[in-house]
Design a protein that fits this description.
By secondary structure, the protein is an alpha/beta fold. The protein folds into two domains: 54 residues, no CATH class; 167 residues, Rossmann fold (3-Layer(aba) Sandwich). The chain is built from six helices and 13 strands. A hairpin with a 2-residue loop joins strand 4 and strand 5.
């Protein structure tokens, strides 16, 4: 078990997509190796098959017109299904920051889009389902790129997984605040949906102004516009 709070939970969800469980003020993570760099207060082996047993903790969520969930669950009638197999890449739709980004995606007109730090591809795949064209995705993690490709194919949508950032009308970034602030000046876009930080935080980058904010469970997401 690892001691921590909300910021630590966000980090753990990135580092241990195999499973994170909150227990008595600490977090239990499921991993092949013991975590390094955290205050570990207890560790124990788990029974074989825990990877499959963890499926019990991944459930679909409804966000507006979308249902985001794992392929072993059925989407409710009338919802647009976004099937996401978590694999070893962050992003199942359950975390508040993902839901907030999905809400904001449904609040803007579909345009060209780049998903920066795509993780499992949930945001770029949802965008494609919502009519955004073209949709691109990128990440520094090769596992995330592979997972996004696989999830896009499973959803039968076109998501171009790229190494070089293309020009787009809108970027979406569900990553840490300092990464958002570092990436905004480099992106060839004029609008961005950003999240991955707490409600008390806000990106502060010259020229970028907040148009709309949404919050849930102590987390926040912003729709930003660039004004030269």
């Amino acid at each position: 078990m690892i001691v921590g709070g909300e910021p630590e939970l966000a980090l753990l969800l990135h580092l241990f997509p195999e499973g994170v469980e909150e227990l008595d003020g600490a977090f239990a993570v499921y991993s092949d190796e013991q975590p390094i760099g955290f205050d570990v207060v207890a560790a124990e082996d788990v029974d074989e098959g825990w990877e499959d047993a963890w499926r019990e903790f991944h459930h679909g969520v409804v966000v507006g017109s979308l249902w985001v969930g794992p392929p072993w669950e059925q989407a409710p009638s009338g919802a647009t299904a976004v099937l996401i197999h978590p694999g070893r890449a962050f992003g199942t739709g359950a975390h508040p920051t993902t839901r907030l980004c999905l809400e904001l995606l449904q609040a803007v007109e579909p345009t060209s889009l780049i998903d920066v730090g795509c993780g499992s591809g949930v945001l770029s795949i949802a965008a494609a389902k919502l009519g955004f064209r073209p949709v691109s995705a990128t990440d520094l993690d090769d596992v995330a790129l592979e997972t996004t490709r696989a999830n896009a194919a499973a959803n039968d949508v076109d998501v171009d997984v790229v190494d070089v950032l293309p020009h787009a009308d809108l970027a979406v970034m569900n990553i840490a605040l300092e990464v958002v602030e570092g990436m905004l000046p480099k992106l060839p876009v004029r609008r961005a949906i950003t999240s991955g930080y707490l409600d008390g935080d806000e990106p502060a980058v010259d020229g970028w102004k907040r148009v709309e904010r949404r919050a849930r469970d102590g987390w926040a997401a912003d729709l930003l516009e660039f004004h030269a």
